[in-house]
């Protein structure tokens, strides 16, 4: 299954003022496209060209760094675009998700503080995550393109803290970007969809 660059699920202006048209053009059209192109080349060379992106991520982790980096970033970004929407964010979570956030993470305010802290304290490039592991929600952070799939968890929300995700709009104010992401961008419907799949 060759990797393909998905179209954005909204237009380039849709996430303004929290994420600019310029950021989306660079991030989606240049960075994500490069992960797709490099990932396809490296997957074919490794004999993994027919596998799903999730399988490539799991099988290349710790064995083929070049392939893993590109495949994992492709996986992360497929969902990153869907994890955002115009008029998103805030504390109105779908019922099942709210219940899990309350029982597993100590409520919305604590989730928000811990999720932003994970993204802020990820040194250098990486991601902050909300995942399901052993049936429970957990917050984590990973370096570079690494994601919870390789740690036995199912990611249901992730935020990209590579500089190309926020530098045009926020310069070095990463916490401000993370706050805008949580307050104004998260597409809780996509998070719920992934939560339901992960709970299976």
TrEMBL record:
Q: Where is the Manganese/iron superoxide dismutase C-terminal domain?
A: 95-192
InterPro entries the record matches: Mn/Fe_SOD, Mn/Fe_SOD_BS, Mn/Fe_SOD_C, Mn/Fe_SOD_N, Mn/Fe_SOD_N_sf, SOD_C_sf
Domain Manganese/iron superoxide dismutase N-terminal stretches: 3-84
Keyword Oxidoreductase attached: yes
Q: What class of enzyme is it?
A: oxidoreductase
Catalyzed chemical reaction(s): 2 superoxide + 2 H(+) = H2O2 + O2
Looking at the record's lineage, which domain of life comes first? Bacteria
Which keywords describe this protein according to UniProt?
A: Metal-binding, Oxidoreductase
Extract the GO molecular function terms from the UniProt entry.
Answer: superoxide dismutase activity
EC number(s) on file: 1.15.1.1
Q: Per its database record, what is this protein's job?
A: Destroys radicals which are normally produced within the cells and which are toxic to biological systems.
The record's similarity note reads:
Belongs to the iron/manganese superoxide dismutase family.
Q: What is this protein called?
A: Superoxide dismutase
Organism of provenance: Aquamicrobium soli
């Amino acid at each position: 299954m060759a990797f393909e660059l998905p179209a954005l699920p909204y237009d380039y202006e849709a996430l303004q003022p929290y994420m600019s048209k310029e950021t989306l053009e660079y991030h989606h059209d240049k960075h994500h496209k490069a992960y797709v192109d490099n990932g396809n080349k490296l997957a074919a060379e490794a004999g993994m060209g027919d596998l799903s992106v999730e399988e490539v991520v799991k099988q290349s982790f710790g064995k083929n760094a070049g392939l893993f980096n590109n495949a994992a970033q492709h996986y992360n970004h497929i969902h990153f675009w869907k994890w955002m929407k115009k008029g998103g964010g805030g504390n109105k979570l779908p019922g099942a998700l709210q219940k899990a956030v309350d029982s597993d993470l100590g409520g919305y305010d604590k989730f928000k503080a811990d999720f932003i802290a994970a993204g802020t304290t990820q040194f250098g490039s990486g991601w902050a995550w909300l995942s399901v592991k052993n049936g429970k929600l957990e917050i984590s952070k990973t370096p570079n393109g690494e994601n919870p799939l390789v740690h036995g968890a199912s990611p249901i929300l992730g935020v990209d803290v590579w500089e190309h995700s926020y530098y045009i709009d926020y310069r070095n104010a990463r916490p401000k970007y993370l706050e805008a992401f949580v307050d104004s961008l998260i597409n809780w419907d996509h998070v719920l969809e992934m939560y339901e799949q992960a709970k299976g």
